[in-house]
Amino acid sequence: MGTFSPLRILYLILCIVGIILPWRYFLAWFTENGWSLGAMVDAWHANAASSGLVWDLTVAAAALTVWIVHEAYTRRDWLLLASIPATFGVGVSLGLPLHLFLRGRREA
After folding, report:
1. 90 backbone dihedrals φ, ψ, rounded to 5°
2. Which residue has the higher pLDDT, 1 or 67?
3. Residue 26's Cα: distance from chain center in Å?
4. Does the record's keyword annotation contain Transmembrane helix (predicted)?
């Protein structure tokens, strides 16, 4: 297992922040509106600005997924695939720094 360089520690910190910040708002929304994922998706498209952000993040998540799959296959490092459910379960804010953190363990 790779060392914990300052850059890998930064990626790990970004993972934690990438979990806390989005879920702080998601949990507040679910508490106020109930645990309906459909209603939350509807809320994401409440106006043109929020719809634009949703599509921006959707394209970023798709590109990140392609990169993760490509790297996992070419490096034969299947642990990198853990970044995919992190991306779609929490968001790009977790998936990207997690992928960089995991990727860094082989480069150290």
Report:
1. -120, -55
2. 67
3. 14
4. yes
Distances (CA, A) of 25 to 2, 3, 29, 30, 42: 34, 33, 6, 9, 16
3-state secondary structure the chain: CCCCCHHHHHHHHHHHHHHHHHHHHHHHHHHHHCCCHHHHHHHHCCCHHHHHHHHHHHHHHHHHHHHHHHHHHHHCCHHHHHHHHHHHHCCHHHHHHHHHHHHHCCCC
Question: Which amino acid type is present at position 54?
Answer: V
d(CA 12, CA 98): 7
Structure tokens at 71: 């790297």
If you search the block for the tokens 């850059």, which residue do you land on? 7
Ordered by start, the domain boundaries in the chain are: 6-104
CB 33 within 8 A of CB 40: yes
The distance of Cα 7 from the centroid of its chain, to the nearest Å, equals: 18
Q: Are 44 and 51 in contact (CB under 8 A)?
A: yes
